[in-house]
Amino acid sequence: MKTFITETHQRQAVEDLKKLLAVPSVLDEQDSGVGHPFGKNVVAALDKVLELCETLGFKTFKDPEGYYGYAEVGAGEKLFGILCHMDVVPAGDVSKWSTSPFEPVVKDGFIVARGSQDDKGPSIAALYAVKALMDADVTFDCRIRFIFGSDEETLWRCIDKYNEKEEAVTCGFAPDAHFPLTYAEKGLLQAYLTGKGTSELQLHAGGALNVVPDVAEFSGEKLEKVKEKLNEHGFAFSDEGEKITVLGKSIHAKDAPEGINALTRLAIALSDVYDFKPLDFLGKLVKENATGENVVGKTMDEASGELTMNFASLEITPEQTKIGVDMRIPVTIDKDELAKKFADKAKEYDLTYEEYDWLNSLYVPLESELVQTLLSTYRDFTGDMSEPLISGGATFARTMNQCVAFGAMFPDTPDLMHQPNEAWELESMYKVMEIYAEAIYRLCGK
Ligand SMILES: [Zn+2]
């Protein structure tokens, strides 16, 4: 197959990547100020990548508030977006690194530094893919815009700001996940239900909303009765005399039906013993079901499967009851309608629904030109016929129209994102450059 990437491109890409990796662009809220909302180091990485883009012949723009920047080439109505981010997660325990995380080196064919895989390496690979097309005198029938976010690893304030202030892309991809590509990802809705408290029982169980709780502790007056009920239901627990711990199986909330929720098991036993309406919501209505079926009815679609509903935290004090829930909503389901059904049901148990966080779903139909072109390019270069993914971790793609996550990690690439000694194999990077160049050529070349 024809390749646009020369050895010069490969060499220069590595040189430029090193410059970017040397900037320790970790969020620093303490260093937040005018023009550098996420700290001076983060905006320095943004400045550095825009400077590189200028040198390569792109027109650039930097958000005066310092949230994002972009670099553009080509002409036309259509705006093709490549969604990157310049912030990185902290180095973590530096003693676990064999080299300094922000002093990039090439070792045994790998470039080693924080950000080499996530997401500076893939960003540079995509950038040089377009540079190679420019060098081959390819003209574009659209504008290609690299959008550089700077707060991806935490709250996505950068991309929210972009979407608030800037032109929406027509379609595009985020080089921030895995090949072949992710074309559907459920919406993520996190919420709390609150209601009155009780002095009958005290409870504080579960924790992070995106995890199925594997333990739930209880101690209280009616402990013996609760134990009896747990035994009747056949629920495992450890008995520490004055206290019991109901045992479950932890798993990521997106796979909630495959876990065992210790908290709902405890709630089932408790609602047999105590007469307290908010508790019945979990103990009598939800029970062990983690697909939301008992609350909102069976909810699924062909593109992305079934709704998941993970009840992750439960707090009962004399003042209030508070239940935390994480839902992954199939891509074609209307979130507001679903939330209303959920809220109405909760109200029957004297609970008030309150939205906490919402991340849009991602869905670009398999038969779309974008997905088909990206997929066939990947397959032509690799021979890997793996099916496209319907869940691959959240990327900026879900904040934009018709965007998917496309690479940059191959199925057999060791996943070192967020790990000590993060590194990316240069051969892998060069191959990604070729795939991106060809894909962009097929999609945007005249
Ligand atoms: Zn990333």
TrEMBL record:
This is Dipeptidase, putative. InterPro entries: ArgE/DapE_CS, Bact_exopeptidase_dim_dom, M20A_pepV-rel, Peptidase_M20, Peptidase_M20_dimer, Peptidase_M20A. Its cofactor is Zn(2+). Residues 242-351 form the Peptidase M20 dimerisation domain. It comes from Pilibacter termitis. Pfam families: M20_dimer, Peptidase_M20. The keyword Cell division does not apply. One of its GO terms (molecular function) is acetylornithine deacetylase activity. It comes from the Bacteria.
